[in-house]
Every structure is written in structure tokens, then in C-alpha cells.
Specification:
Elements: E1 10-16, H1 23-33, E2 38-43, H2 50-56, E3 60-63, H3 70-83, E4 88-91, H4 103-111, E5 117-119, H5 134-151, E6 163-165, H6 167-175
Parallel strand pairs: 1-2, 1-4, 2-3
Antiparallel strand pairs: 4-6, 5-6
Helix pairs in contact: 3-6
């Protein structure tokens, strides 16, 4: 466990759409990283048993009545964290594309006070990292090149949902999150 983390109220936000088969592993991996981490699964209008499976594993479950898209689901999670006064939030997608054992790497700059929000990259792994479709990879690379040029530092994954935030970051995303941002998800 990272120094100082155990004294903080912390939550994992897990947006999920039809992830009944992957959400148990995600929850187990989050608890393996930090047994004191509260887990909230935001069920974004699933038609499968995602919410029931997550609840049976002891996660808080926020059931959206219909699919709002990733922006609405994520903001719902951040509103939950903000309204309940969590000090730290991490975000990990319910499809298992992020490795919760790596949360320490994105939490460290937030805990050290060097960042309010830290974002991990699915493409930083030397081998065995996340693989998406060829067209999606091309789009992500183009967007990453543009963003890197604008901010003056290398950014490899501008659409990553692997994040750590302090109270300021939680408040920011609870109040405003891009609702029109949608990515394709498995049915």
C-alpha cells in the first residue's frame, strides 16, 4: 500500500455496460490492490446481470435506467464520490482493459501533491498491453499527436479511463464531464 493512502477515504469508479463476465475479475483485482477501497459500479443500462453480479460481490451499484454513454456513467460515479466526500477516486473500466495492480503508478503523483488528476496509458506496457482495432488505434494515435503538440509533452492515450483523482479532480468531473463523448462498447 502506498504511504498515506490508508488514512484517506478512497473509491474506485467502474463504469460498466453488459460486463457481467468481466466485472467480477475487475472487482477482485481492485480489492487485491487495496482491500479498503470502496468499489462503485455504475451500470449504464445493462441488459445482462452486471448490476446483480457486482452487488453480490459487495460493490455499491448505481443503476442507470438507460444507457447514457460513457460520459454520463462516469460523471455519475464522480458525483457519487463527491457527494460522499471521498478524498481519492480511481477509475477503471468494467471491461477489464486496465490492470488495477498498476494503480500505484497513477496514484503516486496525486498522493504526492504533484497532480490533481493522473491518467494511465493502456499503451505504456512493454508487451501484452491493450490492443484495439486498427482504425481505433490510428484515431487514438492522431489525437495523441495533436494533444501532445498542444500541451508540449508526450501523451500516448488521450481516451484512457485509467485515472486517479484527488478531491479537486473529483469535484471538477462531478460538476462537468463531456456527455457527448461516446465510444463503442460491446453489446
Amino acid at each position: 500500500m502506498l504511504a498515506g493512502l490508508s488514512e484517506l477515504r478512497r473509491v474506485a469508479i467502474v463504469p460498466a455496460l453488459n460486463e457481467e463476465h468481466t466485472v467480477p475479475r475487475v472487482i477482485d483485482e481492485l480489492r487485491a490492490f487495496d482491500p479498503g477501497l470502496d468499489v462503485v459500479v455504475v451500470d449504464d443500462g445493462s441488459t445482462d446481470r452486471t448490476a446483480d453480479v457486482a452487488a453480490s460481490m459487495g460493490a455499491y451499484v448505481l443503476r442507470l435506467p438507460f444507457n447514457l454513454g460513457i460520459g454520463g456513467a462516469v460523471q455519475t460515479g464522480f458525483r457519487f464520490a463527491h457527494e460522499r466526500h471521498y478524498d481519492i477516486a480511481v477509475r477503471v473500466d468494467g471491461d477489464g482493459q486496465h490492470d488495477p495492480s498498476q494503480l500505484g503508478r497513477i496514484l503516486e503523483p496525486v498522493l504526492a501533491g504533484r497532480a490533481d488528476i493522473a491518467v494511465g496509458s493502456r499503451f505504456a506496457a512493454d508487451e501484452g498491453g491493450y490492443r484495439s482495432s486498427r482504425s481505433r488505434r490510428l484515431g487514438i494515435r492522431i489525437l495523441a499527436a495533436v494533444v501532445s503538440r498542444v500541451v508540449g509533452q508526450r501523451v500516448t492515450d488521450t481516451t484512457s479511463g485509467f485515472q486517479a483523482l484527488n478531491r479537486l479532480g473529483i469535484a471538477l468531473f462531478a460538476g462537468d464531464y463531456p456527455h457527448d463523448y461516446r465510444r463503442s462498447r460491446r453489446p
